[in-house]
Amino acid sequence: LLTHALFKALLFMCAGGVIHSMGDSQDIRFMGGLSVYMPFTSSSLMVSNFALCGMPFLAGFYSKDFILEMFSMRYVNVFGFFLLFVSTGLTV
């Protein structure tokens, strides 16, 4: 839960930085070429997005894997497993 909060906060900080650098305009049509003009912010945005999706070797992957492992050790019916893996697949 802590990793989710940290990476979500990083996403909001990156979005605020992009909006501020565009002259407080939120029109996405004027935000082209973000990686050229703001490479650090763009990289941070991508890393935090990948971490929230649970990409391997990032913090979100290990926390999501731990939750799935703990849930799979419990006695749960087939519907519970189906619901767990469908919801996990939707977050990727």
From TrEMBL:
It comes from Nasutitermes takasagoensis. One of its GO terms (molecular function) is NADH dehydrogenase (ubiquinone) activity. The lineage of its organism: Eukaryota, Metazoa, Ecdysozoa, Arthropoda, Hexapoda. One of its GO terms (biological process) is electron transport coupled proton transport. Keywords: Membrane, Signal, Transmembrane, Transmembrane helix. It is found in: Membrane. This is NADH:ubiquinone reductase (H(+)-translocating). The chain crosses the membrane at residues 43-62, 74-91. Its EC number is 7.1.1.2. The keyword Cytoplasm does not apply. Core subunit of the mitochondrial membrane respiratory chain NADH dehydrogenase (Complex I) that is believed to belong to the minimal assembly required for catalysis. Complex I functions in the transfer of electrons from NADH to the respiratory chain. The immediate electron acceptor for the enzyme is believed to be ubiquinone. It catalyses: a ubiquinone + NADH + 5 H(+)(in) = a ubiquinol + NAD(+) + 4 H(+)(out). It is a multi-pass membrane protein. The keyword Zinc does not apply. The gene is NtNADH-dh. It is an enzyme of class 7 (translocase). Residues 1-21 form the signal peptide. Residues 1-90 form the NADH:quinone oxidoreductase/Mrp antiporter transmembrane domain. One of its GO terms (cellular component) is membrane. InterPro entries: ND/Mrp_TM, NU5C-like. Its main location: membrane.
